[in-house]
Design brief:
The protein is α/β, with parallel strands linked by helices. It folds into two domains: 147 residues, NAD(P)-binding Rossmann-like Domain (Rossmann fold), CATH 3.40.50.720; 107 residues, Dihydrodipicolinate Reductase, domain 2, CATH 3.30.360. 37% of the residues lie in helices and 24% in strands.
Length: 260
Amino acid sequence: MAIPVIVNGAAGRMGQTFVNLISRDPELSLAGAVERPGSEQALEKLGCPVSTDILSLLKKTPDAVVIDFTSPISSMNVAKAVRDSGRAAVIGTTGLKPEELAVLEDAAKTARIFWSPNMSVGVNTLLSILPLLVERLGPGYDLEIMEIHHNKKADAPSGTAIKLAQCLAEARGTTLNDIARFCREGIIGPRPAGELGVQTLRGGDVVGDHTIYFFGPGERIEITHRAHTRENFAQGALRAVKWIGGQKPGKLLTMADMLR
């Protein structure tokens, strides 16, 4: 039996990608589409219930899983609606503040909620490898991250860049807040030992590039992940939709939980 999926923000770039992939997947069915008031007419051709209210759709759809790649405010509403209706959600929204992440964690105590700033299997496999490189190379290597995204991305640095940086910081036994440098300008002096630079570029239609640099004495290592299409992230999210049905509430689920 196909899993019913409700796409929040179905008229957006990622929303349209999800709608297309769901229509081609026999294990999934498009059970509903949600958009902001004034945008619903663009979704009428989908042949599924359309609404501006996520909770009203959830109450009508048993066993539904919500996919949400929208905005922090909208994702908070999704988390609360899923909590109140007893359904499940897969959320890929980036740019969440600590207090917003706390809302997801609280809702996950009683509802099945999956969140990741990057749903790429490749990126999440990379996260499992980076600590080994940090350990083997030692403190003599300077760490830097460069990320590039399209000119319409709202948050900077990207959620993926933050996640990669947090992984590197933890591997060095510290926190990102203690060692991060997000901007360099003017006469700043020599690079402090242990600093972790995270730099941002924006332009064109780049889906997402992330490069981690290990600068050492006489050599450097560069590891780059490039997303060629948004389907890369969408496929990971749909894999989570199929996986989350077998999980229980109690904690905020992540890609690391699913891949493990």
